[in-house]
Amino acid sequence: MLLAIDIGNTNIVFGCFKDSEILFRERCATSQRSTPLEYASVLMSAFGLHGVDPAGITGAVISSVVPSVTATVKSAVEKLSGVKVMVVGPGIKTGLSILIDNPAQLGSDLVVGAVAGINEYSVPQIIIDMGTATTFSVIDRNRSFQGGIIMTGMAVSSDALTNKTSQLPRIAFEKPKKVIGTNTVDSMKSGIMFGTASTIDGMIERIENELGEKCTVIATGGLASTVIPLCKRDIILDDDLLLKGLLLIYSKNCKD
Q: What residues contact 211, with CB distance under 8 A and at least 6 apart?
């Protein structure tokens, strides 16, 4: 079995593969104060919950945008399984052609998502990852990473709105009853939810206009399932995109 882990600024997503089948996927909060033992306990709980024996782990791979947490989670996996952990970064083969000004600056999460995207879906494509930040990755018809967009994530925007005002409450990320709110909470839900959906639709249109062709659009990330259904564009929701990318990268490096 392969244990695949994506460490984001807000959440850590981990999944367990048997061959190409995902046995389970779970999510926990990213904590820079947690110890390897605490992360190992979270992993053990997930394995136990799904009735999977961690003794069957034969490999592990990590992508991370939080360097201070990477070593801690890596140590946790090694304590749990005893296997050597692959960390996506310099020296790891991805097979992805990166055309941005400085390819070394491209986050490992974007690399992993793009590797999965070009393997699973037709190009050109736009990959939207909705986490702490909302990112758009643009893959051209030659399957090369052309560039992208980084914007404030929906939860960060909502937190800023609440923290910077004296009377606006925290809200749940759920579909508002209508666009025109008739009370504070519904007005905020409309602004956050429909506003984000409209931004996504608008950015897709601008990207396609710049490319001069229509794109396959894929969305992933912790907040994608709450917003993508509100978009007017046809967008494929793939919650496991990054886990699939980690499996592909691990397999490529093991074979090579």
A: 124, 138, 140
Q: Which is nearest to 38 in space by CA: 82, 79, 94, 95?
A: 79
Which one of the listed residues 6, 109, 129, 240 is annotated catalytic?
109
List, in sequence order, every residue forming a beta bridge with 6; answer none if it has no partner: 13, 63
Q: Is 109 a catalytic site residue?
A: yes
Q: What is the pLDDT of residue 256?
A: 52
Domains delineated in the chain: 2-87 (3.30.420.40), 97-244 (3.30.420.40)
How many angstroms separate the CA atoms of 254 and 256, rounded? 6
Mean pLDDT taken over the chain: 95
The predicted-structure confidence for 175-211, as pLDDT tens digits, reads as follows 888 999 999 999 999 999 999 999 999 999 999 999 9
Share of the chain above pLDDT 70, in %: 99
CA distance 103 to 147: 10
